[in-house]
Hints:
Layout: H1 3-6, E1 8-13, E2 16-21, E3 24-29, E4 35-38, H2 42-49, E5 55-60, H3 66-73, E6 77-84, H4 87-99, E7 108-112, H5 115-124, E8 129-134, H6 142-159, E9 160-168, H7 179-185
Parallel strand pairs: 5-6, 5-8, 6-7, 8-9
Antiparallel strand pairs: 1-2, 2-3, 3-4
Amino acid sequence: MIYFEDxxxxxxxxxxxxxxxxxxLYLEIGPGHNLWAVSSEIRxxxxxxxxxxxxxxxxxxxxxxxVSDYILSVPKVTSLTTIDxxxxxxxCYRQMIILNDNMGDIRHNIIVGDVxxxxxxxxxxxxxxxxxxxxxxxxxxxxxxxxxxxxxxIAKKHLLRENGIIMGWFDPYTPKEFIDPFYEIFKMK
Length: 189
């Protein structure tokens, strides 16, 4: 059994499709069944995030929205701003909210745009956050480490409040040589 053959399409926009297969959601982006996310990964996200999200939160990367929903479920969270570059992902998330007869969460603001451009605008408006979570990459490798280093530094200097927490999704399948460099990015100095 294969999710894209045996599953049901529940949301679709542009090159983004979400399938429901055996009570799991699968997010595809682009041609050729390019799988980006599976809703069952929420167990790993919960383990990594725990109760760290607090106050005003910033999330980079929407995906299926399961992490957004989790962050908003943490009692000490007051708001969540999510940035995603792909407007089709955002549209699919909205379709799923409607499908579930859900009005969404008024504390959740979603911005479509490139993280670099959006960060510049957030900095210009002097917005800041108690918790920042990065999850806009599909794997952790040398390119991801390089890309994350500069954008995380900007977030630390300009968007993270004093005593705030900043972290990124750690893929448990990350090759060993990238584990320490990944965690080093998020250390506060």
